[in-house]
Amino acid sequence: MTRLGILISGRGSNMLALVEAVRSGRIAETEIAVVVSDKPNAAGLTRAGGLGVQTQVVERQGRTREDHDRETVDVLRSHHVDFVCLAGYMRVLSAYFLEEFRHRILNIHPSLLPAFPGLNAQLQAIEHGVKFTGCTVHFVDETLDGGPIIAQRSIPVYEDDTEESLSARILEQEHQLYPEAVAFVVSGKYEICGRRVLRKR
Ligand code: GRF
After folding, report:
1. Could you tell me if the CB of 14 is within 6 A of ligand 1?
2. Model's pTM, two decimal places?
3. Is 94 in the same domain as 123?
4. Is there an atom of ligand 1 within 6 Å of 88 CB?
5. pLDDT-derived band of residue 201, with 50, 70 and 90 as boundaries?
6. Domain span at residue 161?
7. 81 and 59 assigned to the same domain
8. 102, 122, 142: which is the final residue of a domain?
9. In a 10 Å sphere around its CB, with 0-12 CB exposed, 13-18 middle and 19+ buried, how is residue 130 labelled?
10. pLDDT value at residue 42
11. Is there a contact between 72 and 65 (Cβ–Cβ < 8 Å)?
């Protein structure tokens, strides 16, 4: 059994999509070990708790990044986590965290990376005038949203799109893409060659 740890800071809809995919067997041979939030009031915590998923808060306030990450890594280790899924986790990871889970941390981002990294990716896409955007699941490294890309899905941007309407359409795709990408990684049928994530034949 592969054990997933999911890190959230807010709403947690991608976390729920992963929990549902694990429970329905779409992500095979896998269990959710723990959901960790750096914010005690994250809505996703209540939603995870309601589904009987183990939750834990590791508060970041008033601590250095490394100190906070050490405690988070301890929690993940104590739950025997194999892969870490960031799902709306609003904190950049320290070198320590990255080293502890090298190539075992995934993130989902609401754009077709490398376009529009960072915050407000959907608004960036509208303001840039692109005709297509989407979402990306990637391995996390020391760059901002720049690690090796695992999977992407594109959607059109309409002229009357607002940040809200575009975000909602991207989010629908995120909820499908993230479980598919996690299932792929958990299957182990890939190799990372430089920046490329290649399917093993
Ligand atoms: C998603 O748009 C995700 O791509 C980004 O943060 C948002 C989190 O939403 N990283 P949720 O908490 O999963 O609902």
Report:
1. yes
2. 0.97
3. no
4. yes
5. confident
6. 107-201
7. yes
8. 102
9. middle
10. 98
11. no
